[in-house]
TrEMBL record:
Gene Ontology CC terms, in alphabetical order: aminoacyl-tRNA synthetase multienzyme complex; cytoplasm; nucleus
Domain called Nuclear-export cofactor Arc1-like N-terminal: residue spans: 68-146
Record-given protein name: Eukaryotic translation elongation factor 1 epsilon 1
Gene Ontology process terms (BP): positive regulation of DNA damage response, signal transduction by p53 class mediator
Amino acid sequence: NMALRELSSLEKYLGLKKPNKYSTQGEKKVPVLQRANGPPLVGLVTVACHLAKDAKRPELLGDSAESRAVVQQWLEYRVTKLDGCTKEDAKTALKDLNLYLQDKVYMAGNQFTLADTFMFYGIHPLIVDLAVQEKEQYVNVTRWFDHHVESKACETIQLNLLCCCVVFVFLRLSGCFQ
């Protein structure tokens, strides 16, 4: 499950020493964090925000009321609009994102946040499938994406994402996905 891999990568990036125990629920395989001292936390966004707070990294959630709202907005956008989107929805999302990123380096504010991490994960499958000519239509998304590929903050994410992509390509070539 990609969401569980993302959360595992986030844990490593945050330097959380003790790995958490996860499961999934429902047809969409929504991640669930099993906690020893409290009820389980359900959903990618909920769990990711909890991990950032647990690691005492509140800046990843935004450094002002406005940037916190923008981080939440993009985290929700990721799970509601990008995850499992159709090709047509993907084009719309890339157009929206391209317009939004016109004058921005980061998704929210002036620093790297969870919005960057999870939008990076969310658009990765959309970007890698684009032809060069198509990428030119989304120059701001490509710039933002390339910036985060080169960023230290995405190093752990990239490694895990690369492994996922290799497995996906292998499965696609072996006929598991059409």
